[in-house]
Amino acid sequence: MSHSEPAVRSGFIAVLGRPNVGKSSLVNRICGAKVSITSWHPNTTRTAVRGVLDGAGFQAVFVDTPGIHRPRTALGNRLNEAATGAVADVEACLFVLDAAAPVGRGDAFIAERLPVGCVVALNKIDKVGRGQVLAQLGAAAALPLSDAEFFPVSARTGQGVAALVDHLVSRLPEGPRYYPAGMVRDVPEAVFVAELVREQLLRLTREELPHSIACRVSEWEWPYIRCDVVVERASQKGIVIGHGGELLKAAGTAARAALPAGTYLDLRVVVEPDWQRRPEAIERLGY
Ligand SMILES: Nc1nc2c(ncn2[C@@H]2O[C@H](COP(=O)(O)OP(=O)(O)OP(=O)(O)O)[C@@H](O)[C@H]2O)c(=O)[nH]1
Ligand SMILES: [Mg+2]
Fold it and tell me: How do residues 222-237 score in pLDDT, each as one tens digit?
C-alpha cells in the first residue's frame, strides 16, 4: 500500500446459514450487483463466491457460501465443506437466519460451529409482521452463540441492510484493498456464465431435477460460448430440453439477456450418470 493513501478498513466476511435463508440474495443486495445466483430451491449455491463492496475508506469482501444442511450425497458433503471451510481466514462471520421459518436445530448446528462475536442477520423481515420479527430475534438470541449482535434485514427490500453493512465495516481491521476498483465479484467469467444458465434452469425446473443439474462452459470463442448442461440420467435430458426444445431455449434466452449484446450461447445437454454421488465427477464439475 502506498504511504500517501489514507488508512482503509478491509477484510473478508463469511456469510453462512442454512439453505434458502437468503445468503446469496443478501450478498447481491450488499454488493449492488449479481455476485451469486439465487433460487427458491435449497442448495442453490455450490461454491464459496466472493463479492466486493468498495466504499469511502473501506473494502469489504463478502464470501457467500453453500447452505449448511444434512447431506444426502457426496455433493451435499462437498457443499458443507465449502461452507465450513470459508470460516477460516476471514475477519468476520455473518450468520443469516430466515425470519419466516422456525429457528431450529439446523441453525443451532451452525451456531455451534461459529467463532465468538459473529453478526446475525435475521433476513426476510418483509415477509412477516413486527411481532414475528421480535419472536424470531428472541429465538435467535437463544442459539448457542457467544457475543453475537443481531440485525433484522430484508435482502428483497434493502431494509436494515445499510445498518448491517456499517456495523460489519466498523469491525474490519486496517488493511489493503484486496481487489481493484470496479471489481464486484471474484468469479471467472466462464464460471459466471455457467451459473447464469443454471440459475435459469433452476427457475424452470422442479423437485429433484435442480439438484441433478450442473453447468460448465466447454468452449469460449467470443462471441460464441458453448455451455454444457449436465444431468444425471437420460430421462432427465428430455425434461431439460423440453417439448420441442422449449425449456432449454427459454433458459438460454433468459441467460443471454444478462450477457453483452451479440453473445451466442449454445446450450447442450449431456448425461454424467449419478454425478452428484461421485466425488471425482463433482470435482471435475468445479464444486
Ligand atoms: N421475501 C423475501 N424473500 C427473500 C429474501 N431474501 C431471499 N429471499 C428469497 O429466498 C429464496 C432463497 O434465496 P437465496 O438467496 O438463493 O438463498 P441462499 O441462502 O443463498 O440459499 P442456498 O444457496 O441454497 O443456501 C429465493 O427465492 C429468494 O428470492 C428477502 O429478504 N425477502
Ligand atoms: Mg445461495
Answer: 999 999 999 999 999 9
**pTM tops 0.85:** yes
Ligand 1 closest atom vs CA 123: 31
Matching CATH number, 188-284, of 3.40.50.150, 3.30.300.20, 3.30.930.10, 3.40.50.1110: 3.30.300.20
What integer pLDDT is reported at residue 118 of this predicted model? 97
Query: Residues with Cβ within 6 A of ligand 1?
Result: 17, 19-25, 38-40, 42-45, 66-67, 123-124, 126-127, 154-156
CATH code linked to domain 9-170: 3.40.50.300
The alpha carbon dihedral of 138, 142, 144, 149 has a sign of positive
- Closest-CA residue to 269 (of 226, 223, 231, 218): 231
Q: What is the dihedral of CA 182, 188, 190, 191, to 10 degrees?
A: -110
Contacts of residue 5, defined as CB under 8 A and 6 or more positions apart, other chains included, come to none
**Summary count for the chain: helices (H), strands (E):** 10, 10
Residue 19 predicted with pLDDT over 90: yes
Separation between Cα atoms, residue 27 and residue 52, nearest integer Å: 9
Pick the ligand that lies closest to the CA of residue 20: 1
pLDDT of residue 4: 60
Distance CA(187)–CA(191), nearest Å, equals 7
What's the pLDDT tens digit per position in 102-126?
Answer: 999 999 999 999 999 999 999 999 9
